[in-house]
Design goal:
- By secondary structure, this protein is an alpha/beta fold.
- It is 36% helix and 19% strand.
- Strands 2-1-3-5-6-4 form a 6-stranded mixed sheet, sandwiched between helices.
- Helix 4 packs across helix 5.
Length: 286
């Protein structure tokens, strides 16, 4: 039975545009119900011209916590009192927490969600060498968190210059980082031959780019290489299909989506999300 909303029910939510399609309400409301927490999570679909009014309204009402998705992950920082280290480095926030003193702190849980999903699949990032495709928001969060969590080396391949991103990682962590253009197939092959992990953090493989892959062919892969793709629709991208045929262990983006939400839930409530129950309700594919 769903929990009854009262005058004491804490409100949580997500602000973005569009966002009504989000699976987050099902995730968090399932967790509240399972744990008996008097809370409710709703979607606040807010157009760009109303964003400032919307965010100020959430803060003024004392909302306990909320997620932020595109296109507001950077814009929200101007309204917060404090940022986590990862959020500062990446200049993006996807989770906001109301602290005991009434101030608001921004976090970035995308990277922690990805690293935890890797660990659930038996891949500990500590001491590992990774090849990362992309330098967008998700790629930045993943690369920075992987470096903070002890990755030995991260090599970024991107269409445009990603040297500043590599420099950011080197400056703020002990991880070795370098960047190459994705067109440098010699460097790509050499780095993959020595890597433990390949991560596609681009949109190549979904939407209009469905069926496409940034890795030219299976000769770039080997059985020992763990291949992760942050795309979860389709469930199996061209990259993951190629990797499975090669015998590589693989992971799509559903785990990252689940565990970034689990980290936000922990930050808000101090409780671990009941992930097995949430999986059954929101992620039957996992």
């Amino acid at each position: 039975m769903a929990q009854r909303i009262t005058g004491y029910t804490d409100i949580y939510g997500i602000i973005a545009d569009p966002i009504r399609h989000s699976i987050s309400p099902m995730m968090h409301n399932t967790a509240f119900e399972v744990l008996g927490i008097d809370g409710v999570y709703v979607a606040f679909e807010t157009p760009k011209e109303r964003f400032e009014e919307g965010i100020r309204g959430l803060l003024a009402m004392g909302i306990r916590g909320f997620n932020v998705s595109m296109p507001y992950k950077r814009a929200v920082m101007d309204y917060l009192d404090e940022l986590s280290y990862a959020a500062k480095l990446c200049q993006a926030v996807n989770t906001v927490v109301r602290k005991a003193d009434g101030t608001y702190k921004g976090y970035l849980t995308d990277g922690t969600g990805f690293v935890r999903s890797l660990k659930e699949q038996g891949m500990d990032i500590r001491g590992k060498k990774a090849v990362l495709l992309g330098k967008g928001g998700a790629a930045t969060a993943i690369g920075v968190q992987a470096a903070l969590d002890g990755a030995e080396e991260i090599t970024i391949f991107n269409r445009s210059d990603a040297s500043e991103y590599a420099a950011l990682i080197r400056e703020h962590t002990s991880c070795r980082a370098q960047a190459y253009p994705i067109a440098d197939l010699t460097a790509l092959r050499e780095k993959l031959a020595d890597a433990d992990l390949l991560i596609n953090a681009t949109n190549v493989g979904m939407g209009e780019l469905k069926g496409q892959c940034l890795i030219p062919d299976a000769s770039y892969l080997r059985e020992e290489l763990f291949v992760a793709d942050i795309i979860y629709n389709p469930k199996e991208t061209a990259l993951l299909s190629m990797a499975k045929r090669t015998g590589c262990p693989v992971m799509n983006g559903l785990g990252m989506l689940l565990y970034q939400g689990a980290e936000a839930f922990r930050l808000w409530t101090g409780c671990e999300m009941p992930v097995e129950e949430v999986k059954k309700a929101a992620f039957p594919e996992l």
